[in-house]
Write a structure and sequence with these properties.
Helices cover 49% and strands 0% of the residues. The relative contact order is 0.25.
């Protein structure tokens, strides 16, 4: 879900890294899952340049779980910013 929804603008720990963003919002880990989930659900209200999260409740749970797991294992994840975007002709 993170790869599809976020990696056009975010990486995990590199350019515009989501770990740094969450640390800026919530301080150093541990973060509270319900707070992160609530933010994902409403982030486009506080930051109008962010698109709304359009996934299902299960996808929201998966995204939250992934972001929470980054507290423990913040290895880089390739995204558009690091590997580019292939645009078909």
């Amino acid at each position: 879900v993170f790869s599809i929804s976020c990696t056009r603008c975010h990486t995990t720990t590199g350019v515009n890294g989501i770990v740094a963003k969450l640390t800026g919002l919530y301080g150093p880990p541990p973060w509270e899952a319900e707070s992160v989930k609530g933010y994902i659900r409403t982030m486009h209200h506080a930051r109008p340049f962010m698109p709304p999260f359009l996934g299902t409740e299960d996808e929201l749970d998966a995204m939250t779980g992934y972001l929470m797991a980054l507290r423990e294992d913040s290895r880089p994840l390739a995204g558009a910013q690091s590997v580019g975007v292939v645009v078909p002709e």
